[in-house]
Amino acid sequence: MKNNNHIRRTTLLCFILVLLSFTLLTQCKREKEVLVADTPRNGIILGFSQIGAESSWRKRNTQSIVEAAEESHIQLLFDNAEQKQENQIKAMRSFIAYQVDVIAFVPIVATGWDNILQEAKDAGIPVLVTDRKIETANENLYAGFIGTDSEREGRDAAQFILDKFSQIENRPIRIIEISGTEGSSVALGRAAGFRQGLDDHPEFEIIHSESGDFLRSKGYEIMSRILKEFDDIDAIYSHNDGMTLGIIDAMYERDLQPGSDIVIVTIDAEQAAIEALRRGEVNCVIECNPNTGPAIMELTKKLARGESIPRFQHVDEEVFYETDDLSSLEPRGY
Ligand code: GZL
Q: What is the pTM of this model?
């Protein structure tokens, strides 16, 4: 075993040197991150493909994973795909080439994973899907999922809006939806859950829905245009806090008061959104928990031991309302 470990460490070092030199040669423009935690005492090596750093939520999610790998003494090969599925597939292929013990990844979009998952399966490497879900013809291509329940988040958003406007009668309630990355399971789930929640209330109308790709800049850009195109907007349903902060900026530029001229529901619960809730600029903040690192490492250890894991594991999340006493709420850390 000791000799094997020495061989693997040497191979790992060579692999990383080759990977880094390949990266420098072929993609010097791309800030590729291959973080390698300390050499593990337990010998488990996890290859993790993260989608990028598009929001405070994502950065906290990455931090949680890197910290938990260190604490668990799991060797982490980490790749930042910079919002490109093809970069995720390349990274997963390099993890397979190195023969990591487990692969975990955040699927930036729900489809297009079957081939690389089949390659991992053929190589005998279990795959853990995290944060976002995939659509696949063969559910046996991955070991399990841990992450958010995006449809429930959508239903929670709908319920808040139904309650908020319950006293309004004899006129439609006009809602704008600013959604997340097109084709991502969370954007699809948040949209589906929201519509499920409004199902029996036709007077609640989604008059416009558009993707802001979870980016603050796009939230600002879309809202700036929408405020010119639409009158009498009652509420905005934004799929993440980053876009909401852009929406707030756009409203202030037009002398509109977010949270009172137009009701705002947002998802993630990053610190900036909680502060906006305290200021009355948003009315409901739905938590999406980024701190999945420890649970991912526990599942990784099980998979490395050849044990099975739960098929679907949703993380605990809560909802914060404008009427809540937030004085004792701990800082969010993201
Ligand atoms: C949700 C996660 C989303 C966040 C966004 O699980 O995938 O991606 O809501 C992030 O902030 O960009």
A: 0.88
